[in-house]
Amino acid sequence: MDYSQIACGLAQNHLTDWHGKFVHLDIVHDLTRLTDAAKLAGFDLSVASGHRSFERQAAIWNGKFAGQRPVYDLQGNEIELAKLNELEKCEAIMLFSALPGASRHHFGSDLDIYAHNCLEPQQSLQLEPWEYDAGGPFAEFNLWLDEHIQEYGFFRPYERFQGGVAREPWHISHLSVATQLEQHQHVDNIAAALKAHEVLGKQCILNHLPELYRRFIRNITLPA
Ligand SMILES: [Zn+2]
Asked: What domains sit in the chain, N to C, each tagged with a CATH number?
């Protein structure tokens, strides 16, 4: 397998279908163990989002950069992107959406999860932090994950906001598989992927890539 291609979302031969979502072949065993254990604890663990390709991430990015998709701040207020310069636009988008080529969803080892049976019949999934906090539908599921996720080889890279990506309690990552792929998702590979594709703000991103890489891409919360 070409790890640099996989790490930047440009190859898919590492994936398999897991209940209708594409995930890395090497996480299936641990994901099944985690799902079975959650089930025993009363939670129907469901995957909202698994692997995402470079093209898919670029469509999200370009939609936001062009003002066709809303961009929010940490308080949930919509940002007026037109008032920002290119670098500020990139930083605003990267709070919630990864740069194409630099998403952990390219790995297939990273998933957005929730507990399907904890939603009311008329309630739809938002993937917002309040759903995982006290009083939210997934509060108990979240506490169960805090206790048990590491036993199955996973951790949460966006557990706390630390100046880069916003807190995402729903985002889990398989530690050993993701750690290997992170090493191939470095500045040079991301830059090469960006140069080969249509990405809005590309020149600005390339000019500032080392600092964006440090602040948003490598700035994750590691397991204790
Ligand atoms: Zn995610």
From this structure: 3-217 (3.30.1380.10)
